[in-house]
Amino acid sequence: MAGHLLTNCAAVIANLGQGPIVLRDVDLLTEGPAIAAIGPNLSQGELPLGTERQDASGWFVYPGLINTHHHFFQCFVRNRAELDWTKLSVIEWLDRIYPIFSRLSEDGFYHASVTAMAELVKHGCTTAFDHQYCFPRQAGKRLIDRQFEAADLFGLRFHAGRGGNTLPKSEGSTIPDAMLETTDEFIADCERLIHTYHDGSSFSLRQVVVAPCQPVNCRPETFVESVALARAHGVVLHSHVGEGESAVIEARHGRRTVDYCAELGFAGPDTFYAHGWELTHDELARMAASGTGIAHCPEPVYLVGAEVTDIPAMAVLGLRIGLGCDGAASNDNSNLMHCIHSAYMLQCLVAATRRRPVPPPAEFLAYATSGGAALLGRSDIGRLAPGMAADLFAIDTRRMDYVGTRHDPLSLIPKVGIGTATDLTMINGRIVWRKGEFVGLDEARLFAEAEAALARLDL
Fold first, then answer.
1. Are residues 168 and 184 in the same domain?
2. Where does the Amidohydrolase-related domain lie (predicted)?
3. pLDDT of residue 302
């Protein structure tokens, strides 16, 4: 693979191992999938044959964003008035939404994934984890296979969370029987996917995460078997925890969700949970002690959170923190860059009522980059430095949008927000989005195919 030289970058947000720093007026050189060098006047030296030069004057170059929680399949129920959270109770909403999901075909899951991935890439996301827990019987078992196919279209670094639900509605689940699996079915398909797709090598574009949907919708043995499988193969574990279910879990099992998961072995440095907005300080402390991480999804807090997630407490305790978009059940966009701004502003909203200060704005950028890498168990992505994966995005700041903001690139996204697509997104040393176009793809065709798949649902 040929390399790229970005010359005259106005700012590169680098991290050489001691935290993020802003390097001004430098060049950035990639070679193959990795960053080869960052520094001044690289264009004056000898460059590898075939290196493509790009004038980056005025550009702020950031590490690629890492999305740590999403549900791509939910893209097909966005912006629907009849599913408005403000007009429905949670139970009413679930009763309406799951019959729709249960009608999705294999092709529908594929095009919903294409839709979400396209928006992520346009807004600087270079690695995406998706929690695909919806497996209607009529759609078959190859839904994650199709997600890997979709990721290949964009060159997206994809971590597939193979989710599943094993507890019937008659026993307290919220999942209709048409979407249920047995624990044996779920584990067998996780193992198939690991053997077929998981690549644990440096710069890999495909990894698999064992991710039972949530304790409230699964039998205990589903979590026990998930732990055994994941640790036998050295893959990461994930589930929903602390999003309003703890009282139910306590009524069923005599302990709240964090302690219940820990008792089942579903905790540790290879495990991260999504949400956590209802967790107590003691529960967060126990998670920190075990090394368990959290994927914070700020935008769902607007709709379904009883309170704003206590990120300052998590930070003080040393939890590993990443950011996620979540699905259209509670966030109608797939724009992780927007989530960085939302995460920071939500914490500012409640700062006066909390004893701990809001982390600096730059920390929220870190949650979406190096923090996400840590959750996914990756040491090769999440920061810009020689030897790291060439995952990055660039914003041309020579626009009126950025007048008065350019002195502080680290705080720009959390404090000001960026309302447009990137000028360039690069993944593994390959430019995948540039000047408003997906490189090598026809967006109009992708749009038409996704719209046709959506129409076939007859919502």
1. yes
2. 60-432
3. 85
